DNA sequence: GCTTGATCTGAACAGGCGTTCAGATAATCT
DNA sequence: AGATTATCTGAACGCCTGTTCAGATCAAGC
C-alpha cells in the first residue's frame, strides 16, 4: 500500500499540528511519540515527515505560532488612552486570548525546557516583548501618579502570573462566565496597583 | 564486580532522590532515564531499584515528600489573630517556603500529568487542603468586613498563582532580597483584597 | 487517457527504555 | 576469623524511540 484515498496535504497538515497540540498538552512533549501522533492523525509515522523536518520543529512551530498569534492579536486591539484604561484593556485581552487556546498556552509554558537553546531564545524573546507592553503601561501609570507600584518589572510578572492562573481552573460552561471572570481579575489587578 | 567500597544505603538513598529531583526539574520526568539518574549518582541503573520500586514511585515520593513538608511547615507556623495578619503570614510563608526549594516546587507543578491517577489524586488532595487554608482566611476576612473579594475560591487561586510566580524569576543574590520580595508581594496581595 | 508529482506505507536502522536477576563483593555481626 | 547480610555490577529481556527511504498508489494537469 502507499498513498491513500482522499489524502491531501491541505487536510493532513493541519491535522498533524492539531494532533501534536492536543497530545503535547495532554501528556507532554517527551512523553508523546511520533507514532502516537501519527495514530491520532490516522497515518503511519513516516508520513509525518512530509509536514515537519523533525519532532523538535513540530513543538517549536506550535509555540512560535502561538506567540505570533498573541502578538498579532494584541497589535490589532483598539488603542487606549489613560494608563488605567490601558491596564484594563491588557488584563481583559490577556484573559480572553489565553482562555480561547488553553492547549497552546499550556504547551508554551510547560515545554520551554524541551526546546533547543536557539528555539528557546526565540520564544523567550517574543514573551519578553509581550510582557514589556504591560511593563510600559505600569511605568506610564506610575509616572503619571496613577499607579503605586514598588517595582514595575516584578509587578509585571506578578500580574501576568495571576492572570495566567485563570487557565488552571476555568472551564467554559462553568459557574462563571468569561465577562464575570474578566471583571473579577480586573478588579484585583486594579486594586493591586492603585 | 559487585558491591563497591564505601557503599551504604544511608548515603546512596538520599543521593538517588537528590539526583532525581535535580534531573526531573531540569529536563522533565519523561525526558530523564533511570540510567541518567544512575549516572548522576555514580552507580549502575539496577542499583536504583534498591531504593525505589519503579520510576513512577520515585516521582511520586518526591512530590508527596514536598507536599508533606509544606503542610508540616505551615502547621508549625506561629498562630495569627486578625484576618489581615493571617493573610500576611500566609503570603510571607508561601513565598519563603517555595523559594527555599525551587526544584521540588517546579516538579510538583509540572509533573502532575505524569502521575498515575491514584498518585495524582493523592497530591491534588494535599494541594487542595493547603489552598483551603488560604480560602478560610479570605472568608473570615470577608465575613469580618475587612476583605472585599468577589469570590473567595477564585481569589484564592489568583493569589496562589501570583505568589507562585516568584519562583520563575527570583534568584538568591539578585537585585532584591527575600524580605524585599516578601514586602512587595504582600503589598500587592493586601491591596488586591481590601 | 496518460503522465507527472504529491502522498503514504511498511520495513528497516541504530540506539534507548524500564526493569529483572544471578553472582560478586563489601560491610557488619557474632 | 567466619558467617551473614547489604549493596552493587553487568548482562539480559522485550519493547519503544526518532528518522529514513524505496516503492506503491492516488490526485491533478495536459
Low confidence ranges of chain A: none
Looking at this structure, what is the CATH superfamily of the largest domain in chain A? Tetracycline Repressor, domain 2
The CATH topology of the largest domain in chain A corresponds to: Tetracycline Repressor, domain 2
Biggest sheet statistics of chain A: none
Q: Could you spell the SSE succession of chain A in H and E letters?
A: HHHHHHHHH
Mean pLDDT of chain A: 97
Q: Specify the overall morphology of chain A.
A: elongated
* Percent helix range of chain A: 55-70%
Q: Evaluate the radius of gyration of chain A.
A: 20 Å
Please, what is the oligomeric state?
homodimer
Q: What structural category arises from helix and sheet content of chain A? A: mainly alpha
The largest inter-chain interface, given as chain pair and residues per side, is: A-B, 34 and 34 residues
Provide the CATH top-level class of the largest domain in chain A. Mainly Alpha
SS field, number of helical segments of chain A: 9
End-to-end distance of chain A, in Å? 67 Å
Please tell me about this protein's structure.
- The structure is a homodimer of 194-residue chains.
- Chain A is mostly helical.
- Chain A has two domains: 1-52, Homeodomain-like (Arc Repressor Mutant, subunit A), CATH 1.10.10; 62-193, Tetracycline Repressor, domain 2 (Orthogonal Bundle).
- In chain A, 70% of the residues lie in helices and 0% in strands.
- The first copy, chain A, has nine helices and no strands.
- The first copy, chain A, has helices spanning 9-27, 34-41, 55-75, 83-100, 102-110, 117-143, 152-164, 166-169, 178-193.
- Chain A is elongated.
- The mean pLDDT of chain A is 97.
- The interface between A and B is medium-sized, with 34 and 34 residues.
- The first copy, chain A, binds a DNA duplex (30 and 30 nucleotides) through residues 1-9, 12, 33-35, 43-47, 49-50, 54-55.
Amino acid at each position: 500500500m502507499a498513498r491513500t484515498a482522499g489524502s491531501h496535504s491541505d487536510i493532513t497538515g493541519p491535522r498533524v499540528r492539531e494532533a501534536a497540540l492536543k497530545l503535547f498538552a495532554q501528556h507532554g512533549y517527551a512523553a508523546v511519540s511520533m507514532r502516537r501522533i501519527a495514530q491520532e492523525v490516522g497515518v503511519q509515522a513516516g508520513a509525518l515527515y512530509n509536514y515537519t523536518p523533525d519532532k523538535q520543529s513540530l513543538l517549536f512551530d506550535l509555540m512560535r505560532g502561538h506567540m505570533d498569534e498573541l502578538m498579532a492579536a494584541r497589535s490589532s486591539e483598539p488603542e487606549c488612552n489613560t494608563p488605567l484604561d490601558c491596564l484594563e484593556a491588557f488584563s481583559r485581552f490577556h484573559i480572553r486570548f489565553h482562555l480561547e487556546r488553553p492547549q497552546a498556552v499550556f504547551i508554551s509554558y510547560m515545554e520551554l525546557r524541551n526546546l533547543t537553546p536557539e528555539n528557546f531564545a526565540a520564544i523567550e524573546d517574543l514573551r519578553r516583548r509581550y510582557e514589556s507592553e504591560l511593563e510600559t503601561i505600569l511605568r506610564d501609570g506610575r509616572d503619571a501618579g496613577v499607579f503605586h507600584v514598588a517595582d514595575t518589572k516584578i509587578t509585571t510578572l506578578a500580574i501576568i502570573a495571576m492572570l495566567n492562573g485563570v487557565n488552571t481552573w476555568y472551564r467554559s460552561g462553568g459557574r462563571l462566565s468569561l465577562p464575570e471572570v474578566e471583571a473579577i481579575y480586573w478588579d484585583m489587578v486594579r486594586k493591586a496597583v492603585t
